[in-house]
From TrEMBL:
Belongs to the GrpE family. Pfam families: GrpE. Keywords: Chaperone, Mitochondrion. CDD domains: GrpE (cd00446). This is GrpE protein homolog. InterPro entries: GrpE, GrpE_CC, GrpE_head. PROSITE patterns: GRPE (PS01071). Residues 51-67 have a biased composition (Low complexity). Residues 41-50, 70-84 have a biased composition (Basic and acidic residues).
Length: 237
């Protein structure tokens, strides 16, 4: 029995010794793996640090591309605005020209309407000028001594007075509608207002002076309806 106890103690001691040896042997291997893990971690960190700028460069490349695209869009937008501004200026210019043309047309139309209204009686008044000429001729051909206060020819005096009143009333009617007469006796000859029927040299009178009026002239609203028919002093040179 003592032998068995001794053998059991011996086995227990041998097991403890083998366990201690195994522990001692296993420690350097753990240190090696720790060193290897640290070395790998440092390498990974180094690779990560080296890869970071490349990644930043790759990230910066799309950012630069986006900036260039934004600038291109901005330029295209500005060009479109400039084109619209030019088109707007052209439309505004055409509008102003159209308004000016319409205003000119309105003024011309208003003037034509006014002229039509003012000169509507032109033909009618011109037809009556012969009547005024006949009345004026009848008055001028009556001898002055026959219608003087000392004359006893009362019938002729009454007739002369009636014809003169008729002539005056006709001229007043003309004037009421814008037709006015003018007598250029002793005035300078004006080809725009006078019609020279004959010329006679007359000493003592200035050449080109009206010395005889056969028919008085008429104007309507400042426009010559009929020029005066006159005799003009001729130059002796």
């Amino acid at each position: 029995m003592s032998l068995a106890i001794f053998s059991s103690s011996l086995k227990s001691s041998a097991f403890k010794t083998a366990r201690v040896a195994t522990t001692i042997t296993s420690r350097p291997s753990s240190a090696i793996w720790s060193q290897r893990f640290y070395s790998t971690e440092n390498k990974d960190n180094k690779d990560t640090k080296e890869a970071a700028p490349a990644a930043e460069a790759q990230e910066g490349a799309p950012a630069a591309g986006e900036a260039t695209e934004a600038e291109q869009k901005k330029t295209a937008h500005e060009e479109a605005l400039a084109a619209k501004d030019k088109q707007l200026a052209e439309v505004k210019d055409r509008l102003l020209r159209t308004l000016a043309d319409m205003e000119n047309l309105r003024q011309r139309t208003a003037k034509e309407v006014a002229n039509t209204k003012d000169y509507a009686i032109q033909k009618f008044a011109k037809d009556l000028l012969d009547t005024a000429d006949i009345l004026n001729m009848a008055i001028k051909n009556v001898p002055q001594d026959e219608i003087s206060e000392t004359s006893t020819n009362s019938h002729l005096k009454s007739l002369h007075t009636g014809v003169a009143m008729t002539r005056d009333e006709l001229l007043k009617t003309f004037k009421r509608y814008g037709v006015e007469s003018f007598d250029p006796m002793n005035e300078k000859f004006d080809p725009n207002l006078h019609q020279a029927n004959f010329q006679v040299p007359m000493p003592g009178k200035e050449a080109g002076t009206v010395f005889d009026v056969q028919k008085i002239g008429f104007m309507i609203k400042g426009r010559v309806l009929r020029p005066a028919q006159v005799g003009v002093v001729q130059s002796t040179d």
